Each structure stands twice: as structure tokens, then as C-alpha cells.
Amino acid sequence: MSVSGKSVLKRLDWFSVLIYIALVFIGWINIYSSTFTDDNPSIFNFSSLHGKQLFFIGTSALSIIIILALEANFYERFSSLFYIISIVLLLGLFIFGKTIAGATSWYDLGFFNLQPSEFAKVATALALAKYLSDIQTDIKRQKDQMIAILIILIPAFLIIPQPDPGSALVFFALIFVIFREGLPLYYLGIGFMVILIFILTLMFGTIWVAIILGLLLALFLLLKKPSFKVPIIPVALIYVAIVLFSLSVNFVFNSVFEQRHRDRFSLWLRLEKDPKKLEEIRKDIGYNTYQSEKAIESGGLSGKGFLEGTRTKGDFVPEQHTDYIFSTVGEEWGFMGTATVVILFTTLLLRLVYLSERQKNDFSRMYGYGVISILFVHYFINIGMVTGVLPTIGIPLPFFSYGGSGLLFFTALLFIFLKLDANRLNELT
């Protein structure tokens, strides 16, 4: 290895690397357990799912070598090109895409199914960091705010029709990068208000939303100081806009959402009042989550032991090696195992926050927060989904779930930032 290569390895944040290795290893152990059969016990059987994942791990290791070998400024220089390629690949799915489990999200390459939305996450994080770090960009200007948000929205809106709303949701997490760089907080307030009104309308209806909002507004006007002047017309327009949005919720829910999405919201928010109908939904659309919860509960404190999970062996949890891999950890390794995984992920995220904050280069810092946003949303939603706290969306657990595209591009996402961080240390010496 060259002198520069040795310098990169010396300055690499090995604490983050070790957590990455631990997560990949633990993930593979649980993939092996969830796909193990007595007829297929070999670790190196590459026709099996755990064998394929081992191959993907090797491919990801090779990608790490390539990422670290390239110059750090390569990623900033070509970030716009990566973004354009990702958009072209997403558009191509409408013509050449392969449909798996009802979603046209893959290209069939014969030996490998490529999911371009995973590459788009890396490319969008790079492109957003490039735009925000440009000397001509001022995030205080509304025009620049709109362009930054548009960079996020374009790939998200191309992914939604696949349909893959889970992956699309991840892109919206990148808005937190813009907030970190100075986007006014009222945008965040508007976003939370939209979500809150949407949920409250589904639960109680538009009439009650209008009444509650009117009462809160009246209470505010009664309790405010006489010297505080309230602009009546703008407040009235905001009230009308909220009520109109609430009226649109039922149309979106009934006419835009698919039945499976409506059922998931009905289950999560307990919208269905008929106990029999609710039980039917739980056994149908909520079956995966129900079985996942039972598998985790059965693990107790220390679990049933490696390869001893009865629900795992009985295939009670569908797709357990992918989105529901965390349930295998819960059944076979118990609370101690799930706590270990949660601690590893949390520690990695906190470490990445620390590394991002110490960056002197704006592009590196902004990209670092893009990495944090993407990993956090995947981690938070996946574990919330598997444990029944959040509705089923269908996104993998980073570095953990089975899948070549996911592992490869999550690895690239992380190690591009670690390369940028190593370069920062290089520039200081």
C-alpha cells in the first residue's frame, strides 16, 4: 500500500469501523439463523441466502478499499454527476424495472438485483452537501431553500410510485441537514403540524379538528396580554388553510392510499371500531408485526440460544431475514441481544455526530449529517416497526438486514464520510 494509503488507514476512525464490523457480523449470524435448514448447514453455500449475504459482505469490503483509495475531493467533485445518474436509474425502473413483492424497485442483472433507490440515498446526500456548501448558496434565501428541498424531493417522488413509500420517506430525513445549516425552524413546525393534523383528522374527523383548533385559538386570544397585537386576517387565513387541509385528508386516505396502507393506519391508530374487522386486519396486514412481537417476547432476558428460536425455525415471521431480522435477535438472544444492537447503533450515530461537528470543511460536515439522518431514520423506523410501535413501512435495518444493494450502499454511505474525516486529519498535519 502507498504512503498515502497507509496515512488513510492510520487516520481512519477505527472506533466507527469496529462498530460497523460488529453490526455486519451480528447481522450475518442472525441471517444465517433465520435461513438455516438441516439440509443446508454449510456457511459457504453461496446458493443459500446466508451464503449470498457472505458474498455481499465480501463485495462491500472490496468497495471500502476502493472508497478509501480514491482522493477525498473526488466525492465532492462528482457529487452532481452521481445525483444525475441516480435520477436516470430511478426513471429507468418505469421501463426496465423488475417487480418483487409488488414493488418495481430493482434491475435484474442476472446474478444480482440492483435497487437504485439505495444508490440514490448516497447520491442525494452528496448532492445536497455539495449544493449547501457552495459559496453562492445562502440558506437564508428562500430561493436557495427551495432548491435544496427540491434536491430531496425529486428522487423521493420518483420512488413513491414504484410503490416504495418506505424508501421515499428516508429522503425526507435529509431535511434535517438543511435545518442544521440554518433553515428557519418554522418549516419544521409546519411539517409537524401537517403530520399532526393528518393523524388527528383520521382519528377524530375534520369537525372535531376545527372545533379543537377554534377553542385553542379562542383561549389564546383570551389569555394574551392586551399589548400583544394579533394580526386577525393572517391568523384567520391560517385557520381556514388548516381546515381545508383536514378536509383533504379523507380524500387522500380513501382515494390515494392503497387498501394495504389504509389497513396499516387503521391498525396503528385503531381507526377500525369493529373488533372482528380489527382482528381480521391484524391477522392479515398486521400478521408480520404480530408474529415479530411474539418472537421478541418469547426471547425473555437472555433468549433461547443460537439456532434455538422456535418461531424463527417455524417460519412464523415472514421475511424474517430482511426487514424483520431484529425479531430473530429478540427470540434467540433476548433482551440482552436486542439491547446490544440498540447500543451499537446509538453509539455509532453519536460518534458520527461528533465526527461531523469537528469537520472544518463544510461539505464534509453537511455530508456527515446526511449520513446520520439516513441511518437514524432506517434504524428508528425498522425497530419501531418490528416491535409494533410504528406502522409497517418496509425498510431494512442498516448493515444488518439481508440484501446486497442495501449493504453495499450503506457501507459506501458510511465509508465515504470516514474517508472525508480521515482527510480532515491529513490536512491538519
Automatic annotation (TrEMBL):
The keyword Cytoplasm does not apply. It is a multi-pass membrane protein. It comes from the Bacteria. InterPro entries: FtsW/RodA (IPR001182). It is found in: Membrane. The chain crosses the membrane at residues 12-33, 53-70, 82-107, 145-161, 193-223, 235-257, 333-354, 366-393, 399-418. Coiled coil: none annotated. Keywords: Cell shape, Membrane, Transmembrane, Transmembrane helix. The keyword Transmembrane helix applies. This is Rod shape determining protein RodA. The lineage of its organism: Bacteria, Pseudomonadati, Bacteroidota, Flavobacteriia, Flavobacteriales.
